[in-house]
Each structure stands twice: as C-alpha cells, then as structure tokens.
Amino acid sequence: MADRLIVKGAREHNLRSVDLDLPRDSLIVFTGLSGSGKSSLAFDTIFAEGQRRYVESLSAYARQFLGQMDKPDVDFI
Predict the structure, then answer these.
(1) CA distance 49 to 75
(2) Among 5, 9, 18, 34, which is 20 to 30 Å from 74 by CA?
(3) Any bridge partners for residue 4, and if so which?
C-alpha cells in the first residue's frame, strides 16, 4: 500500500493543472480564498476518484443500481 497520495494535473473547476504529494494517515487542511479551488480539490477530485474506484470494485449487479460515475479531470491519482 502506498504511503502517499499523489495527484498530478488536477483541472476540476478553478484548478489549473495542480500537482500534490500528500502523506497518508495525516490530518491535511486546505486553506485559501473563496473560489480558489479547495472544495474542487477535496470533493470533486480526490473524493470523486475514491468513490469511483470503490464503485468499480463492486459486482456488476450492484453497479447497475448506482449509475455511471465520471472520472475527475486529472492526469493521475
């Protein structure tokens, strides 16, 4: 299991090709001005990819009830 969460080229909403290298098992805080992309990074990129990968691991029968989940606009997570 990897000890870091690496994000390369995140481009959701206000994000412009953001690269991050975050440690696992740590409290991480995103701060910044309103509209700077904090929620886009946390929810629309990192959370969305985690949710998509979880749903992808379910059986085809279970996935049919959940619908299609789009991949976030990111080069690599």
Answers:
(1) 12
(2) 34
(3) 23
